[in-house]
Amino acid sequence: PTKTVERFSKFISVSRMIFFLEKFSFGARERMVSPLKLYSIDTGISNAIGFRFMENFGKLMENLVAIELQRRFRRPNFEIYYFKDYQQNEVDFVIKEGLKIKKLIQVTYASGKDEIEEREIKALIKASDLLKCEDLLIITWDYEDEIEVEGRKIIFKPLWKWLLQI
Q: Of 42, 49, 64, 89, which residue is least crowded by CB atoms under 10 Å?
């Protein structure tokens, strides 16, 4: 059954209905054996066949950001990954240009500072340390701010404002 699901997923991916992100790793072997994250180009169709995006606005926002990142960074030399360490700290998106990590992005359905979970910030700081990246962004539903944590600036930007950026 696993092989069937993998084959079916590859066919759908080729049709551009879905796409996958690999886990970031400096080693190619680890990237190849790590689980992929799945995103849908059309969330309406995804809802119809059983991926319940509309029940979780955070997942829907993350999917929308993934689509926009694919559009913005569909150029040679740019790659998009997700990050997860052995302690399960996860960052939604890692933007890599050439050999350098350019940006780390978290996505959360939060309308205020008190709604942002500590794990979102902790994972971003941990990834920033490991990947030597200073450009840290958390895309929120409606919260905008800039804070400093452990000597690093984290920018919080509402989804609508981020989408309007060029």
A: 49
What are the tens digits of pLDDT across the range 82-100?
999 989 999 999 999 999 9
What is the C-alpha separation between 111 and 122, in angstroms, rounded? 19
Token pair for 44: 């309406």
Radius of gyration of the chain (CA): 16
Residue 61 Cα distances to 8, 64, 126, angstroms: 25, 5, 23
User: Would you say 66 and 46 are in contact if contact means Cβ atoms under 8 Å apart?
Assistant: no
Per DSSP, which regions of the chain are E strands? Answer: 18-23, 37-40, 78-84, 90-97, 100-107, 136-140, 145-149, 152-158
pTM of the complete model: 0.85
